[in-house]
Amino acid sequence: MAGQRVRIKLKSFDSKAIDLSAQTIVDSAKRSGAKISGPIPLPTRIKKFTTLRSPHVNITAREQFEMRTYKRMIDIYDTTTETMSSLMNIELPAGVYIEIKQ
Question: Treating both helix axes as pointing N-terminal to C-terminal, what angle do 15-31 and 81-88 enclose, rounded to 10 degrees?
Answer without folding.
Answer: 150
